From TrEMBL:
<protein>
    <submittedName>
        <fullName>PREDICTED: putative</fullName>
    </submittedName>
</protein>
<dbReference type="InterPro" id="IPR034088">
    <property type="entry name" value="Pla_a_1-like"/>
</dbReference>
<dbReference type="InterPro" id="IPR006501">
    <property type="entry name" value="Pectinesterase_inhib_dom"/>
</dbReference>
<keyword id="KW-0732">Signal</keyword>
<dbReference type="Pfam" id="PF04043">
    <property type="entry name" value="PMEI"/>
</dbReference>
<feature type="domain" description="Pectinesterase inhibitor">
    <location>
        <begin position="29"/>
        <end position="181"/>
    </location>
</feature>
<keyword id="KW-1015">Disulfide bond</keyword>
<dbReference type="GO" id="GO:0004857">
    <property type="term" value="F:enzyme inhibitor activity"/>
</dbReference>
<feature type="signal peptide">
    <location>
        <begin position="1"/>
        <end position="28"/>
    </location>
</feature>
<dbReference type="InterPro" id="IPR035513">
    <property type="entry name" value="Invertase/methylesterase_inhib"/>
</dbReference>
<comment type="similarity">
    <text>Belongs to the PMEI family.</text>
</comment>
<dbReference type="GO" id="GO:0005576">
    <property type="term" value="C:extracellular region"/>
</dbReference>
Amino acid sequence: MYHISFFLICCCLFFLVIPHSKFSTIAATSVDIIDQTCKKCTDEFDVISYKVCATSLQAVPVSHVTNLQGLALIAMELALQNATNTLSTIEKFSSNKSFDPFALVCLKDCLQLYLDAITTLRDAVGAFLREDYDTVNIWVSAVMEAPTTCEEGFKEKEGEVSPLKNENYNLFQLCDIALCISHMLKYLGSTFLTGCSAT
């Protein structure tokens, strides 16, 4: 299981890997950065919830001393934590005899989807640290298919309720947030960063 200290280590590593000059336009007012980022993501990505975005990012202590790049990394690490925890949940559900055969088949499918998602998210983090945003966008988008496909599997049987509804929703949201920030970094560059720091 991932802990908050893991995020701190990752972000510290991120600052060591990426040249310091990249961050010269960022002020350390991350509450404003989180607010501006989440508002922009909500405007540009209709499915993103501002509340989920702001609450998720602000819950990680290191987010209060980071910048836009750091927020993207935090979103991906939160998604990785969510996927890892959900994998454990699926394993527990799979041994629960209260689920009917159809639900157990769905859970088995979800298990494989989440296993693949975890691997892809780890690769996406590596690509992000190399500033390969095109690859990040492709892989994070691919991960978003996991919760969607998992959820749709349960809907194939009328009346079947997904026991992973919240987990699937949260992973989709976190990936979409990371994707949004990655798009900002690729297409908006210093203009958006300067705007955040001046707010």
